[in-house]
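Lab notebook, bench 4. Still working through the backlog of constructs that have no structural model yet. Next entry is a single chain of 257 residues. Request: give me the C-alpha cells for it.
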Amino acid sequence: MTRDFTDAAYASLLDTGLDAGYDFLTVREYVQRETLPERFLVLRHDVDRKPENSTRFAQIEAEREIASTYYVRTIDKVFDPQFVRDLAALGHEVGYHYEDLDRADGDIQEARQSFGSQLALLRDHVTVDTVCMHGNPLTPHDNRDMWDDPTDLEPFDIIGEAYLSMDFTDVTYFSDTGRTWEDGALKIKDHTMGEGDKRVSADSTADLEALLREGRVSRACLLTHPNRWADSTTEYVAETAKDAITNVGKRGLTLLR
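Model written out:
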C-alpha cells in the first residue's frame, strides 16, 4: 500500500483524475475562461518552504501534460529567480503567495504598498496574473482582509485571488493542511470565503481518489503544500513528525480562540 503524502501518492491522484476524465485547470484559466468544462480540477500549490519539493511536483505534472498553479512566497528561504523560471518553463502558472498584512501588522495601506513591491520582485522573472494569501496561524491577521473586493486588485493588474475569485458554491474545495484532506480545526485560516454546503469529505488521498473515481465530485479545487509530501523514508518520517507537532499547537490555538 502506498504511503500517503508522498510523491507516489500525488502521482496516483493525478492519474486517477486523468482516468476519470477530468479537465485540469490553473487558477488563471479558471478566472479567464468564459465557459468552464463540465468536470474539472483546479490544481493549486502553496510554496511555503522547501521549493525543491515543488519542483518535483511540477515535473510529475509536466510528465502528464498537466499545468497547475504555484503560489510562491517571497521570503529568502523560498524565493529564487531560477526556481520560479523553472516552474514557468514547465508550463505552470506562478503567482504571488502574499502575506503583506502580516508584514505590516494589520496596517492595510502599508500592506498594499508592500504587496506592490513584492509582486514586482516576482514579475521581474515570470508573468503573474493571480495571487493567493498565505495563512500564518500564529498571527492575528487574515491577509485577505487587505481587500474589500477582488476589484481592489485591479490596480496591480491582477485578475484573480485564489480564495476570493472562485465560486465555492460550485467548486468543492479540498486542502491538505494538517496532513488531512478533511475540513476541521486544523485549517485555522485555510478555508474558503462564501463556500456552499460541502456534501463530501476525504481524509486520506485514497479517499479523495475514490470520490473522483465514483464521480461524486464534478468540480473541485485541490490545494497541496508540496513541502508536506515526501520522496524518501527520511523525509516522510520528518514531515509526519513535524505535522503532528504543529497540529497539537493548532488545536491549542483553536481552544484559546
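Notes after review: The two ends are 39 Å apart (CA to CA). The helical segments are 7-19, 27-32, 51-63, 81-89, 100-103, 108-123, 205-213, 233-256. Flag for follow-up if needed.
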